[in-house]
């Protein structure tokens, strides 16, 4: 069993409109935009990052907003719900805030003894807030939400799978342990992780396969401290039979990718070098930052990328 992985690093999803996406995460959820850059493979498309003050691993939601992309179709073989942690007793605040801002899909629920508020993103993305009194991570508090109510970071992700057995075994190999179960859902966690250290597996044998599009999670990334730990994980996964990519430089972290037995794309990302490698922490996300291989496109991109607004 591996011990290098400490929990989630980031979740990356698809969107249809960059300005709408930016407004939702910064003005509705009160997160900080910590980076505006572009897709490495499609530089005419933004890659936007939303997180806490510094972009701490375990708090980072990222998006590829492809103009005119078709809407995704929920199903199995994907991350179904991305769950954020908020302080105990704050769901009432968020329920009112979501009503005031016309957020859709809002409903109260309880799972594993936790009070939750489910809601949808602008493209039908599946989200929830869960009250976690033990979460002492510092939030971004200079946005639209005060520190006492603000999102702390990720709590968990929920995987929807036709058969969860093989993916569960993979997660256990990655250092997760089963900590609870409820009906068709099994909960796994990393003891002493980074706070974003829970994964739920929901088994839905008869459900259709998901179709990637706006509102879909493209991949979920797990955090390791540095490149040395990442190489240890890569070797172990490859030796186990997984087809793992070479290490790829993503400017703000190093990444490897592999497909799980259930069809979900996993990434293992380093905590280094971080989002302040090319911007001062006080000004994260304010300027368009380009990968060096796309810097020559700056005049075109600055003219043609959709303005994000404040």
From TrEMBL:
<feature type="domain" description="VOC">
    <location>
        <begin position="153"/>
        <end position="271"/>
    </location>
</feature>
<dbReference type="InterPro" id="IPR052537">
    <property type="entry name" value="Extradiol_RC_dioxygenase"/>
</dbReference>
<dbReference type="Pfam" id="PF00903">
    <property type="entry name" value="Glyoxalase"/>
</dbReference>
<keyword id="KW-0560">Oxidoreductase</keyword>
<dbReference type="InterPro" id="IPR004360">
    <property type="entry name" value="Glyas_Fos-R_dOase_dom"/>
</dbReference>
<keyword id="KW-0223">Dioxygenase</keyword>
<dbReference type="InterPro" id="IPR037523">
    <property type="entry name" value="VOC_core"/>
</dbReference>
<feature type="domain" description="VOC">
    <location>
        <begin position="7"/>
        <end position="132"/>
    </location>
</feature>
<protein>
    <submittedName>
        <fullName>Ring-cleaving dioxygenase</fullName>
    </submittedName>
</protein>
<feature type="domain" description="Cyclic nucleotide-binding">
    <location>
        <begin position="77"/>
        <end position="122"/>
    </location>
</feature>
<dbReference type="InterPro" id="IPR029068">
    <property type="entry name" value="Glyas_Bleomycin-R_OHBP_Dase"/>
</dbReference>
<dbReference type="InterPro" id="IPR000595">
    <property type="entry name" value="cNMP-bd_dom"/>
</dbReference>
<dbReference type="GO" id="GO:0051213">
    <property type="term" value="F:dioxygenase activity"/>
</dbReference>
